[in-house]
Design goal:
The chain is of the alpha+beta class. It has eight helices and twelve strands.
Length: 438
């Protein structure tokens, strides 16, 4: 009985001890993957040089960090996934306890020499130090990149513009018969996944990520590229509130200034102040828009035309003020001339009255003898007052007629220019907003 128990103990002990224990290092040792082994990292991983290396590429937009119109720079944050096959790597998972993939440092294997054509600044974001290696030789590399790239922007409809920026990826030295680029996802799937994972867009609304393949020939050799086009639309609310509406408010103030009296100095100073405010907004716009563009931005046309209309309105006010001042000076000179003539006439009348009084002295004495002295004195005083009142009324009536004529033509000029001003502004604003919406 004890012998049977001992045999059973030996059998169970051998079974437990025969269970195999595996590790990732066993696979690495089996493949002979070391940092000094140049077989895996010096040359393209094919057993026959005529075989092409198929690289599957997938790019997902994670964030729109910046779109700088002044320098025409597009800065996205993207996820990049590359997959290719290494014909020198394979193992049987059954021999290694079912291990189907391992992770190894990037420096141990060959990687496709892909680069971004539009990239103008070295990526300074932290990189993933490892790659996945599958049992069938499939290598997977995943990485995050902050791409600072050039983008030819069309700011004609700023701030209601839509921009399309490209990221072109290709090999530096491998021709199309050596390295092929294939997209892992189509445009609709890449767009949908980008919308799901996107964290930051700023003032931009992401619309679409389209993928296209492009081959170009140079020096009788052909290269294959993948072009990822990011389409995004600007959210214009901030620019409308901070820029477009203030200019319309200043334009409304300039139109309201026509209800200020012309003979005062407040109207001219008010228009100059509004014009200076528009100049400040133009300086701000100059810092936003690029120095060169294929078409003149509509917002620049919008500002320049309104600035020109306000300048024309200021010149009209200066002209009316100058003419009114000139009329005022001529009226003052006419008043002085009339006063001098009045003095001369009074002197002549006094001299003639003295002569008549001397000639008619006997008659006057007879009349004075017939009329009471007190009554004659009162009648003479009344006559003198009536003469002075008549002269004063004539002078005031003449001045009023001159002032009335001056104010009449000034009002006509203001009315005509106001109608012209409102008509031009209405037509221009209608055209500019139709152009923005198309």
């Amino acid at each position: 009985m004890m012998y049977v128990a001992f045999l059973l103990l030996i059998v169970f002990t051998d079974g437990a001890s025969s269970k195999k224990v595996c590790s990732y290092q066993d696979v690495v040792d089996y493949l002979n993957l070391t940092t000094d082994n140049g077989v895996f990292k010096l040359t393209r991983p094919v057993l026959d040089y005529k075989h092409s290396t198929m690289v599957e590429l997938d790019i997902i937009l994670y964030a729109i960090l910046a779109v700088i119109e002044k320098t025409q720079t597009f800065v996205p944050f993207i996820w990049v996934t590359m997959m290719w096959n290494n014909e020198r790597i394979s193992w049987d998972p059954a021999q290694f306890c079912g291990i189907t993939h391992i992770t190894i440092p990037r420096e141990m294997l060959w990687k496709p020499d892909l680069f971004i054509y539009e990239m103008i600044q070295k990526d300074d974001s932290p990189h993933n130090p490892y790659m996945y290696v599958s049992y069938d030789g499939t290598i997977t590399s995943e990485d995050d990149m902050k791409v600072v790239s050039t983008c030819k922007m069309d700011v004609h409809k700023f701030p209601f513009d839509t921009q399309r920026c490209n990221i072109t990826i290709g090999s530096a030295i491998h021709y199309v018969n050596e390295l092929r680029l294939l997209p892992s996802s189509n445009s609709s799937r890449a767009t949908q996944f980008s919308r799901e994972v996107m964290k930051s867009q700023g003032e931009w609304e992401f619309l679409q990520l389209s993928i296209a393949s492009y081959n170009f020939t140079f020096d009788d050799e052909q290269w294959e590229n993948l072009i990822y086009t990011f389409t995004m639309k600007r959210r214009p609310l901030l620019h409308v509130i901070n820029f477009l509406l203030p200019i319309l408010f200043f334009l409304s103030l300039d139109l309201a200034s026509y209800f200020i009296a012309d003979h005062r100095g407040e109207k001219l100073g008010f228009k100059v102040t509004v014009l200076l405010a528009i100049s400040v907004l133009l300086l701000i716009l100059n810092d936003i828009l690029p120095s060169m563009s294929n078409k003149t931005p509509l917002i620049a046309t919008y500002c320049i035309v309104i600035f020109a209309l306000m300048l024309l309105s200021l010149l009209e006010t200066i002209l009316v003020t100058y003419l009114m001042e000139k009329d005022s000076v001529s009226q003052e000179e006419s008043r002085l001339r009339d006063k001098r003539e009045k003095v001369k006439i009074d002197n002549c009348n006094a001299a003639s009255d003295g002569e008549k009084q001397h000639e008619l002295l006997p008659v006057t004495e007879e009349v004075n003898n017939s009329i009471q002295p007190r009554e004659s004195h009162v009648l003479l005083l009344i006559l003198e007052e009536l003469k002075e009142l008549q002269k004063t009324l004539n002078l005031h009536l003449r001045c009023r007629q001159k002032v009335g004529k001056s104010g009449h033509w000034a009002a006509k000029i203001n009315r005509a220019f106001f109608i012209f001003y409102v008509t031009i502004v209405s037509l221009f604003l209608t055209l500019i907003f139709i152009e923005w919406n198309t």
